[in-house]
Amino acid sequence: MYKIEKTSFGFQITFSDFIQKKEMIKWLEESKKVLTTNSNSFYVLIDMRQMKLIPIESQKYIQEGQKLYKQKGMVRSAVILSNSLLKMQFERIAKETKIYDYERYIDAETNLNWKQVALDWLIKGKEPDK
Description:
Blueprint: E1 2-6, E2 10-17, H1 21-36, E3 42-51, H2 56-71, E4 74-81, H3 84-96, E5 103-107, H4 114-124
Parallel strand pairs: 2-3, 3-4, 4-5
Antiparallel strand pairs: 1-2
Helix pairs in contact: 1-2
């Protein structure tokens, strides 16, 4: 399951469960529509606390989506996770799509104040690990 919400800082995307290729394609198409209505730079908070690992056949759509958001004006993104394997998977994908320098990963299991930490990174550029 996924959800894309417009926020005061840009967008919040929530992913949960095990997202198959068909649903990932649907997310990418909806992202294209949402981003055509946006003409400003923006930030993205991605909540993956309830997400399972992404199947290989779905990963290319995540990569396309990351590139799309960056091309359309994304300044920074914060990914909230509670699974170390998913974190490694997304770090690898972000390096492949060249958004790694703009994206930070926050472990919701060890950081109970994860939302404020994410917003501080997004809006103020404050490094989450400092």
